[in-house]
C-alpha cells in the first residue's frame, strides 16, 4: 500500500515500496500528450524514469489546442464524475517575499501545482511540485528577476495522476486565454528545470550487514542523535522518501533551511535491525522520527503542528 | 486483515476517557490507516509528544495491524473549547 497522506506516521511493521499508481489514462488523452507531461514532470522529479522527449513548438501548440477543444467537448458530459478529477485548492496571487522565512509562512510546503509570474504579472512557468514552497524558493534563488508572484494550487491526494491533471488544467486555462504556452514551459527552455543540488548523503549506522557489531545498535543510535543537532529517521532517503509522511518531514526541514542528518530505516544493508531497536530506544512506534539536541521531538504530526504554529524556529535555535 | 474503526474508538474510549473523539478510516474501509482527533482531561499538563505517546500506548494492540496512524488533534477540553469558539462553523 502506498503511504501517501499529508501528515501522520507510518507504522513500520509493514514493509512496502512506492509503486506507480496503476491509473489508466482516460481515452481522451493521446500518448504524445502524456509524454509531454513527463517532460514537465522531469523538472520537478530529477530522477523521473521517463525519457526526456522534445517536441517542436508548433507540435506542442497544436497538441494543446486540440486538448482544449476536446476538453470543451467533454465538459458537458460529466467529465469530472467519470475521471474523479481533484480540484486543487487554489490561492490568489501571492507576492514572493524577499526573506526565506517569510516564504515558508506565505506558501504551503504541500504537493500541487504552481504558476510563477514576473513583475509585469506575465505568466512565466507552470510547475508541479512535491513541496511548493521549496520549489518556489529554488526558482527565486536561480532566477529572482522572473519570480515576482505565484499562484498556488494544493492537491489534496497528490498521486502522480492527480498532479498531472491539475497541471494540465492550469496550462489549458492559460492557453485558452492567450493562445500560447508560457515561455518557461516551452520546449528547450531549461530556465526552470531544477539542477539537482548535491544532497547531503544519508547516514549509515553500520559498515554493512556482514560486519559483526562490537557496539550494540542502541548505543550507536544514542551516539548518533547526541552528536548531531537534528536527525530524521525516515523511510527512504532524503532525495527519495518512500512514504508521504517522510516526504513531508523532509519538506519541512528543507523549508526551514536547517542542517540535518537523515537515516533510511528501510536500508537493510547498512541499517539492519534499526527499526525495532529505535522503537524501543525512543518509545515511539512509527516512522518518521525526528530528534533535536538528542531528544525525540516526535513524528510527522508533531513536526507539522510545530511548523504550523511557528514553533520550529525556536526549536532549532536552541 | 485490518482493524475496525469501532475497535480503535473502543480502545481510546476505555483508556483515555475522551470527551470528544473522532476516528476516520483513511484507507477507504479496509482498516489500514486512521486519522484521529481526541479531547481528554488526561492531556492536561502534558506536552504534545507525551499526548501522542498516550494515544500510541492506548492503541498498542491495534498498532500491530495499523499501517499508518495520524493524530490530527490531541487537546485538553479547555483547548478544544477555545478552538470551537474561534471556528464557529466546526
From TrEMBL, chain A:
Its transmembrane ranges are none
Q: Which UniProt keywords apply?
A: 2Fe-2S, Iron, Iron-sulfur, Metal-binding, Redox-active center
Domain of life, per UniProt, equals Eukaryota
Organism, per UniProt?
Rhamnella rubrinervis
* The family this protein is said to belong to: Belongs to the glutaredoxin family. CGFS subfamily.
* Protein name per Swiss-Prot or TrEMBL: Glutaredoxin domain-containing protein
Q: Which GO terms describe its cellular component?
A: mitochondrial matrix
Q: Which PANTHER family match?
A: BIFUNCTIONAL MONOTHIOL GLUTAREDOXIN-S16, CHLOROPLASTIC (PTHR10293:SF45), GLUTAREDOXIN FAMILY MEMBER (PTHR10293)
GO molecular function terms attached to this record: 2 iron, 2 sulfur cluster binding; metal ion binding
Q: Where is the Glutaredoxin domain?
A: 230-297
Automatic annotation (TrEMBL), chain B:
| Pfam families per UniProt | BolA (PF01722)
The Gene Ontology biological process terms listed for this entry are: intracellular iron ion homeostasis; protein maturation; response to stress
Transmembrane ranges?
none
InterPro entries per UniProt: BOL2 (IPR045115), BolA (IPR002634), BolA-like_sf (IPR036065)
GO MF, one annotated term: 2 iron, 2 sulfur cluster binding
**UniProt superkingdom:** Eukaryota
Cellular component annotations (GO), alphabetically ordered? cytosol; nucleus
Q: Which family does it belong to?
A: Belongs to the BolA/IbaG family.
**Protein name in the entry:** BolA family transcriptional regulator
Its source organism is: Rhamnella rubrinervis
